[in-house]
Design a protein that fits this description.
Layout lengths: L3 H21 L3 H17 L3 E4 L2 E4 L2 E8 L1 H19 L1 H7 L1 H6 L4 H10 L2 H5 L6 E5 L7 H4 L1 E6 L8 H12 L1 H7 L5 E3 L3 H16 L6 E4 L7 E2 L2 H12 L3 E4 L4 E4 L2 E4 L2 E2 L2 E4 L3 H8 L6 H8 L3 E2 L11 H5 L2 H7 L2 H10 L3 E3 L4 E3 L5 E3 H7 L4 E5 L9 E2 L5 H13 L4 E5 L5 E7 L5 E15 L2 E9 L11 E8 L13
Parallel strand pairs: 3-24, 7-9, 7-13, 13-14
Antiparallel strand pairs: 1-2, 1-8, 4-5, 4-22, 6-24, 10-11, 11-12, 15-20, 16-17, 18-19, 18-20, 21-22, 22-23, 23-24
């Protein structure tokens, strides 16, 4: 008999195999037609990225990433455990010098945190983020493959792109798969927009704001990046009757004790600006008071706690001296299983992955092939150096630069990034299969978890670096699996 864990892992492998078999049965003409249809739908439904004012459709790969309902439930549990731990970091920062040393803020960021953090946040701390991870759902050992790479606690991309991409695949690809294999019953995952709007409405109730006027505070006039907020606003209004306005922070005012945009009183703001971004605007004459007021009144998603969004968060969760003080044994077990060992690069002794105290720099120099070097607070894949792909002299030079640099760098265990083959169309218009690295993003709330899958032929997987998207589909396991003794 198979154990439950073995049966679940083999069921995931079986589901993936059935999807792959359906695509393998398609002829070149069908694959080419399918790829062009998906590209056209991405253009029509605004699954696009702006580069210097030019709108480009984002590559949406036709093969969905498949998972089972039990896998979804486990991912929700693990990602929500991590998310709730991160929401406590503001309190830990204010009370524990060791945490403050890891998650160093600038003086002005710390003043904003001290000014804005209050009793209301302890009652309800609205952080809506995405946790980036790698996992191989098709592996019998899929739980062991789940490793979280870094947090993104505020202003996450994909609110329109992810559910729209999934719907395109559901509309275009799912019927073809069912025609090949009638047993394939697939559905898309939870809609990230619905999770966000529910978090906002619940928070408004908790803080006693009767209105439902939402403001997306964003770089309205940017010419590079994801362009999706207008689409999200239309969805909010169509599904929930919620009016969403868009404002650059410089367009907000305080009138009669309320924060307003063009005369509209704002009840809650969803922000795509950090405090450092706001301070950069302030240097050009902008007043930060409207945003600061919203932070202090706990009317921003994500809250001021998200200013502690750093890759070094994982050092807090992988340091036994800290986790044993503040987290339960169940939480610590999740951290040990699924959070990658991470440390701020500096000349010091620390707890090493092998379970003993040791010299950090000596370990980093010696274990190049098992590590990654990253800027602590950059995003979009900027500056990432993979030890396995870096010559020894360059690695040693990068370590020395990180130690001397004014900005913090982290070193992290190298994650095993799953690789899958997807059909692509070459310049001659012919389809063929090529390997892609896959990285997942999980946006958990108590109501569920939304999942983003990104794919790239580079090990640094990011849409900003011309990576693509995959739809995530939830499917049912086969009716029965048998162990080796049941064969033959």
């Amino acid at each position: 008999m198979l154990t439950p864990a073995e049966e679940l892992g083999l069921s995931g492998m079986s589901l993936t195999g059935r999807i792959r078999a359906a695509f393998a049965a398609m002829g070149p003409q069908d694959l080419r037609k399918l790829s062009l249809q998906i590209r056209d739908e991405c253009q029509k439904r605004h699954v696009v990225y702006m580069r210097d004012g030019t709108v480009e459709p984002i590559r949406l790969l036709p093969v969905p990433v498949t998972m089972l309902p039990d896998q979804t439930a486990y991912l929700h549990y693990v990602s929500l455990t991590l998310h709730n731990a991160l929401k406590r970091f503001a309190d830990l920062y204010l009370q524990d010098f060791a945490v403050r040393q890891i998650l160093k803020l600038t003086d002005v960021e710390e003043r904003w945190l001290l000014d804005a953090w209050g009793p209301s946040h302890q009652e309800s701390n609205p952080v809506f983020g995405r946790l980036d991870a790698v996992v191989d759902f098709s592996s019998p050992m899929w739980k062991s493959s789940l490793q979280f790479v870094e947090p993104n606690m505020s202003g996450i991309g994909g609110l329109h792109l992810v559910p729209t991409s999934e719907q395109i695949v559901a509309d275009v690809v799912f019927p073809l798969l069912r025609a090949h294999d009638a047993r394939l019953q697939l559905r898309v995952g939870q809609d990230i927009r619905e999770l966000l709007v529910q978090e906002m409405l619940d928070h408004l109730d908790l803080i006693g704001r009767a209105g439902r006027a939402v403001c997306f505070v964003e770089p309205r006039y940017a010419t590079t990046g994801i362009d999706e907020q207008e689409d999200v606003a239309r969805h909010f209004y169509r599904r929930h009757g919620i009016r969403v306005v868009h404002a650059d922070p410089r367009e907000l005012t305080v009138e009669g004790g309320e924060v307003c945009f063009e005369g509209t009183v704002i009840d809650i703001a969803y922000r795509d600006y950090s405090v450092l971004d706001l301070l950069e605007l302030e240097r050009s004459g902008y007043s930060s008071q409207p945003m600061k007021r919203l932070f202090c009144e706990n009317r921003v998603v994500s809250s001021i706690a998200a200013e502690l969004d750093q890759k070094a968060c994982w050092e807090v969760l992988t340091d036994p001296a800290i986790t044993q003080k503040y987290f339960s044994s169940e939480e610590r077990q999740v951290f040990r299983r699924h959070v990658l060992w991470t440390r701020i690069v500096s000349d010091r002794a620390t707890h090493l992955p092998e379970g003993r105290e040791g010299d950090l720099l000596e370990y980093v120099r010696r274990e190049r092939e098992t590590l990654v070097l990253k800027p602590n607070r950059a995003y979009g894949g900027e500056g990432v150096l993979i030890g396995l792909a870096t010559p020894d002299p360059d690695w040693h030079a990068a370590i020395e630069n990180a130690v001397r640099s004014e900005r913090a760098w982290v070193v992290q265990q190298l994650a095993r990034i799953p690789v899958s083959e997807f059909p692509v169309i070459d310049d001659a218009g012919q389809p063929h299969f090529e390997p892609f690295y896959l990285v997942m993003g999980f946006a958990p709330t108590r109501n569920g978890v939304a999942i983003m899958a990104r794919a790239s032929q580079k090990q640094v997987v990011n849409v900003a670096q011309r990576g693509g998207l995959c739809a995530v589909a939830v499917g049912n396991p086969p009716a029965r699996l048998v162990g080796p003794e049941g064969l033959g």
